[in-house]
Amino acid sequence: MGQKRDVSEETAAIRSGSSAPSSTSKEVGGSKSADERELAVLSDEELGRIDEKLKLRPLAIYEIVREEGVQELARPVTSLWWSGLTAGLSIGFSILTEATLRSALPDSTWAPLIANWGYSVGFLIVILGRQQLFTEITLTAVLPVLANPSLRGVWAVMRLWTIVLAANLVGTIVFGAGIALDVMHRPEVTQAALELSREAMAHSWVTILLRAMAAGWLMATIGWLLPSSEGSPISIIVLMTYLIALLGLSHIVAGSVEAVALVVAGEQSLRSIILGFYLPCLAGNAIGGSALFALISYAQVKREIEETAAEGRRSEG
């Protein structure tokens, strides 16, 4: 995500100004009338600073995310599997950290406002560690197919999603079982984790579906914002994932840790969590991240892509 950004038309105009007082400066003329004309002299260093301050255009962000999607779709199965398994284990630290904070805080209305910050820990490990997380690739995997629709592309997306999701869930099964069995011998943390799990599962499938759509949107937003984060990805990841916890939204991978913990603890049946959590949450995350965010993101740059392609054909002709 560290690709060099294009210089905007405004800066390009500055660089190609008609007047050049010296080899290291350019003149920019901007006026409402000939009598009021003012000339601004900018050095190459100043022009370079302008380039650094310019924000990435949506088209540039789209291209960065799309190219990442192309790379992910081309990765071998073994690489995807082990990266996804690692992510499933890592995301468990979101639940464990939040439970640890909750167990240390008094039982008050403001306690969740602090404990929810712990939810971001696992996502920081996963995203900064470049591990494969299902909800993070719902956007990146879809954009290449939207740009060049084909059955082969759809198959590649389904292959990527299936491998990563399966690997994520295997990791969460291991971590969730460890929490329920109190392998760390922290009974107060285990009880807090089970309380979080009960709260997460205590909703109808419709509610979980809708909350999962919102969570999918926020996770896709992370992927869209990171290219223009300018060296501050941590703040973006923490803010978006904190919102997921604060609003009680449903995330298929993090929520799987909670669901498994309840099954191992004997409080839920496997059938109930599959029908009541996994299916609606999976559908909601996919809809929010792919069908909604990806389509809207592509729609805002589609015209620019077509115009750029048309200009390229004209120049070749």
UniProtKB/TrEMBL annotation:
Compartments reported by the entry: Membrane
Keyword Aminoacyl-tRNA synthetase found: no
Membrane topology: Multi-pass membrane protein
Transmembrane spans: 80-97, 109-129, 160-181, 201-226, 233-253, 273-296
Keywords recorded for this protein, A-Z: Membrane, Transmembrane, Transmembrane helix
Classification via Pfam families: Form_Nir_trans
Record's compositionally biased regions (Polar residues): 16-26
MF terms in GO: formate transmembrane transporter activity
Taxonomy, superkingdom: Bacteria
Protein name (database record): Formate/nitrite transporter FocA, FNT family
Organism: Consotaella salsifontis
